[in-house]
Amino acid sequence: MSQQSSSWLGKAWSSWCSVPLWLQILVGMLLGMLTGIILGEQAVVLKPVGTLFVNTIKMLIVPLVFCSLIVGVTSMQDTAKMGRIGFKSFVFYLGTTSIAIALGLGVGELLQPGAGLNMTPDAGAAAAKEVPSVMQTLINIVPTNPVAALASGQILQVIVFAVALGIALVLIGERGQPAVKMFESLAEAMYKLTDMVMKLAPYGVFGLMAWVAGAYGMDMLAPLIKVIIAVYLGCFLHVVGFYSLLLSLVAKLNPLQFFKGVRSALAVAYTTSSSAGTLPVSMKCANESLGVNKKISSFVLPLGTTINMDGTALYQGVTALFVAQAFGIDLTWVDYVTIILTATLASIGTAGVPGAGLVMLTLVLTTVGLPLEGVAIIAGIDRILDMARTVVNVSGDLVATTIIAKSEDELNVEHYNADEEQSQLLAEKLNAES
């Protein structure tokens, strides 16, 4: 009998492990809510399980951001022309990312998704913060002691030091390669460790959601729905509004032709929630549908997959405000600037990391002193949000590629404006020539 039970449990565990992580997290959230509603205030005994998960994410933040930022910066070295294109790409991606998070903050302020939830943060989290002056905020960005900044988790200081060190390693050329290889190895190890930690997410989310549901009941459902609506609205405005404006005003191109040409890439992005996984389709769309020269697309698109996080930045703007509103914490305008700076600079090296959205959200919340319990609430709906933000990320990569190609006279405008049949014929001709 015990052997049969053991065999059944083994099969059940094997089946559970084969379920995609996002679905495991969703199940953990739903079971946690159900458990919390049944147990009521007694569900607080499960909170340490969630706290342990939050602590493991906090453990990752500094080394992950530090190593991946250096790898992101050092990956941009190339020939003179590629250097110019790389600079344009870098400025474009960081500029649009800062606008995206500002838009997310704006949508969050407008819809107020966390208002009325009245959650209570842990002791110390709700303590009043002394608001630094603008000059003091700017001065504090540069660390006087980088090691102390790493040890104390001063995120903005860590980001500034990592970017500066990455640039220095690029400038010294071959002599910097041993250090670059070391950081690449460390970054890969951190990506793997992140993957390992994210496997604990369903259980951590279960523990924290049980506590939240036990303490606040079903009142949390409406705010979660509002978060989804806010993120999707922000993503729609950024893609259809802002990107269309860039294509029209900067590149003098028809946005409708662009969206018609990239629809297959956006469909793959939405269903897979992976910018890296969509890259082959994005390359195909850029070359065969938009008429971008392969020399441009083969450099700008992979770079965008590494450093462009418009969708994730927008998501962080909405969710950071949700957490602040849910816990009744008022953010100052300095906090808003800090959120924009942190998410923009951190976007350089976070793409391609499993659980990147949640890790970046933890980073942003930590920087402005918001309670990390909010991460568990967002984790349950993260997959739904991830689908929308990946579409924005991929759209941004393709918009940047198109605009930069136009600026370098590497865009076949006739090909770009061609209908579907003509575009296919031109693509076949180009493939035959190459």
- CATH superfamily assignment? Sodium:dicarboxylate symporter
What is the overall number of helices?
20
User: Residue share in helices?
Assistant: over 70%
The total of beta strands comes to 0
Nearest-integer average pLDDT: 79
- What sort of overall outline do the alpha carbons produce when their principal axes are compared? globular
Rounded to the nearest angstrom, the radius of gyration is 23 Å
Estimate what percentage of residues fall within beta strands: under 5%
Total separate domains: 1
CATH topology: Proton glutamate symport protein
Task: Please trace the helix and strand order, writing H or E for each element.
Answer: HHHHHHHHHHHHHHHHHHHH
Q: Which oligomeric form is depicted?
A: single chain
Helix-and-strand structural type = mainly alpha
End-to-end CA span: 67 Å
- The CATH architecture designation is Orthogonal Bundle
Secondary structure: elements and pairs:
Blueprint: H1 2-17, H2 21-39, H3 47-74, H4 80-111, H5 134-141, H6 146-152, H7 155-171, H8 177-198, H9 201-216, H10 221-249, H11 255-272, H12 275-289, H13 294-307, H14 310-326, H15 333-346, H16 356-367, H17 373-379, H18 382-407, H19 413-417, H20 420-433
Helix pairs in contact: 2-9, 3-7, 3-8, 3-9, 3-16, 4-10, 4-13, 4-14, 4-15, 4-18, 7-15, 9-17, 10-14, 10-18, 11-12, 11-18, 12-13, 12-18, 13-18, 14-15, 14-16, 14-18, 15-16
